[in-house]
Amino acid sequence: MSSQESLQEELDSLRQAVKSLLGILDAQLIGQPQTTRQILECLIAGGHALIEGAPGLGKTTLVRTLAQNLDLDFQRIQFTPDLMPADIIGARILNFDERGAQGLTFEPGPIHTQVLLADEINRATPRTQSALLEAMEEHQVTVFGETRQLDRPFMVVATQNPIEMEGTFPLPEAQLDRFLVKLHIDMPKAVDLAKLFAKDTTGIRQQNEVQVECAKVLRMQELAQQIPVGDDVARRVARIIHATHPTSELAGEKTRALVRHGSSPRGGLSMLAMARARTLIAGGLHVKMEELEAVALPCLRHRILLNYEGMAGDMPISELIEEALQRASA
User: Could you tell me the residue range of the domain that residue 185 belongs to?
Assistant: First the structure.
């Protein structure tokens, strides 16, 4: 068997495993197929996700099910105003050995995992929120001058409640930019709710059978990075990012009037990373324009800042992104 045939066989096996995993995720989060696909694409792209949705819509269930079926270590942190950075990254504690001698040993915090659910991240203080930054960007933490590498793959999934904003600490723009995507979970339709209520409650806990081993996740991340991007696709991404800035010659009428600041270059890199992951799952050989349009909303919705008029008019970010896509293709 040639190396090309061996690679194709490996890709087919990985895609079949991903298809099975998506079926399990869809069964857990009924009526949200786009969200389940995007969070898996985010993991394959090697990024982190911010999920916004009202309580009780299944955010925690989705992330836990993803980790379980990928054989990844999972930890959950409930963010509160009194949470301290040491509660996340760990601390040195005083121990006594069998002879009574004292010594300091490091007790790792919950960030030393592979899939970390940061529940209601905007309820913690900015000092505690910033404890995640080094881990998200460098996949390492520094404690008392000592750097500790985190296991790979490593993914942070943070959640926010858009209803209850009193007493919260909104994430600063620089920290929002560290998330590859921002996903929304909406209220399911009545027909989907009926399916949820009709489920057998004895089977509500997900089966422990692993669908994709950890080594395969790392392999998919490696393969996704190797998917080529043509010059035409790169130029299209550059035009899309420029079209989100109100001072750009590519900006549309709504963007000029309602946007204070557009996406950073990291937004373009996020689009390409997500498009590569989407291409890998779909079985494509190179990134196409359709993939860019499919990932534009989750990659850019948290990177476009409205001005006073835009916030007062409650302008949907999705309309501004659609306008940027149209202007970039003109």
Answer: 48-194
Average pLDDT in the chain: 86
User: Which residues 6+ apart lie within 8 Å of 54 measured at CB?
Assistant: 161, 162, 163, 185, 187
Output the pLDDT for position 3: 66
| Residue 201: per-residue pLDDT | 57
CB 262 within 8 A of CB 255: yes
- Supply the CATH number for residue 114's domain: 3.40.50.300
Whether 301 maps to a domain, the answer reads no
The reply to whether 327 falls in a domain is no
* Strand blocks (E) in 120-218: 140-143, 146-149, 155-160, 181-184
Assigned domain for 90 exists: yes
Burial class (CB in 10 A: 0-12, 13-18, 19+), 69: buried
| 305 in a structural domain | no
CA angle 40, 44, 45 (to 5 degrees): 115
DSSP code of 108? E
Fill in the amino acid letter for 10: E
The span from the CA of 260 to the CA of 247, in Å, is: 9
**Domains of the chain: total:** 1
The Cα–Cα gap between 106 and 94 comes to 9
**How do residues 163-213 score in pLDDT, each as one tens digit?**
776 667 888 888 888 999 999 988 888 888 888 888 765 544 545 566 778
Query: Which residues in the chain land under pLDDT 70?
Result: 1-4, 97, 100, 165-167, 200-210, 330
